[in-house]
């Protein structure tokens, strides 16, 4: 059976672990070759091995806040595997604190990684994709960008900004055959979320009609949908992967 991404080349930022790695693995399973951009070189090496080695995967150290780093990452995909068909802007950090206690640096760091990083990737990928008249960009936002979360004025602002960026950019490049969509995950099971205090976990669970946390693979399925021809007439949309939380 031919995979949904057979012959395609994808780049996933923050792809060495968590949701990013789940997306990279799903893409490889569907026939794509994947380049991971990340800062954790040890995790990247492990991820490439788990994905099947250098015939299907590669890794490039990339700080997404650096325009030059992102440019080098995308060019590496073209140089290594021959094209750039999909980009997933997934890299992110948290620096949670109430607004009263949040430092200017904590605000700037989160805005820079999420929002500027997403803009760097979206701009640079679209410059390549418009020349080939095809391509899909998937931007990872968050339910926090829809409703705002206490202690996340930086993160909520950045993730809301990603939605606005996605819609504006989608309008600019649609006539070049480039599609740009966003995903807003809710509570997804990971090392970070499982480290929450039980009280905080339980409070979030009461907001989820489906009664459970999501798995990284469930976000990856939607990232696959947006990357492949199943979503060929969709651009500028936002998919909530939340189990119905805060709908």
UniProtKB/TrEMBL annotation:
<keyword id="KW-0560">Oxidoreductase</keyword>
<dbReference type="GO" id="GO:0004316">
    <property type="term" value="F:3-oxoacyl-[acyl-carrier-protein] reductase (NADPH) activity"/>
</dbReference>
<protein>
    <submittedName>
        <fullName>3-oxoacyl-ACP reductase FabG</fullName>
        <ecNumber>1.1.1.100</ecNumber>
    </submittedName>
</protein>
<comment type="similarity">
    <text>Belongs to the short-chain dehydrogenases/reductases (SDR) family.</text>
</comment>
<feature type="domain" description="Ketoreductase">
    <location>
        <begin position="8"/>
        <end position="186"/>
    </location>
</feature>
<dbReference type="InterPro" id="IPR036291">
    <property type="entry name" value="NAD(P)-bd_dom_sf"/>
</dbReference>
<dbReference type="InterPro" id="IPR002347">
    <property type="entry name" value="SDR_fam"/>
</dbReference>
<dbReference type="Pfam" id="PF13561">
    <property type="entry name" value="adh_short_C2"/>
</dbReference>
<dbReference type="InterPro" id="IPR057326">
    <property type="entry name" value="KR_dom"/>
</dbReference>
<dbReference type="InterPro" id="IPR020904">
    <property type="entry name" value="Sc_DH/Rdtase_CS"/>
</dbReference>
């Amino acid at each position: 059976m031919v995979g949904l991404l057979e012959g395609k080349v994808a780049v996933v930022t923050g792809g060495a672990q968590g949701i990013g790695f789940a997306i990279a693995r799903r893409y490889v399973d569907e026939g794509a070759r994947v380049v991971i951009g990340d800062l954790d070189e040890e995790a990247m090496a492990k991820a490439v091995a788990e994905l099947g080695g250098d015939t299907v995967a590669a890794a490039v150290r990339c700080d997404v806040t650096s325009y030059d780093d992102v440019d080098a990452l995308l060019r590496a995909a073209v140089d290594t595997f021959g094209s750039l068909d999909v980009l997933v802007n997934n890299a992110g950090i948290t620096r949670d604190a109430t607004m009263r206690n949040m430092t200017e640096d904590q605000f700037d760091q989160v805005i820079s990684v999420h929002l500027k990083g997403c803009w760097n990737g979206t701009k640079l990928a679209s410059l390549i994709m418009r020349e080939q008249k095809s391509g899909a960009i998937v931007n990872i936002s968050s339910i926090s960008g829809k409703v705002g979360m206490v202690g996340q004025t930086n993160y909520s602002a950045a993730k809301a900004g990603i939605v606005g960026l996605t819609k504006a950019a989608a309008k600019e490049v649609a006539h070049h055959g480039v599609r740009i969509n966003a995903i807003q995950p809710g509570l997804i099971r990971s090392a970070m979320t499982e480290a929450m205090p039980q009280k905080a976990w339980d409070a979030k669970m009461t907001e989820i009609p489906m009664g459970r946390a999501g798995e990284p693979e469930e976000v990856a399925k939607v990232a696959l949908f947006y990357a492949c021809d199943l979503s060929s007439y969709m651009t500028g949309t936002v998919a909530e992967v939340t189990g119905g939380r805060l709908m």
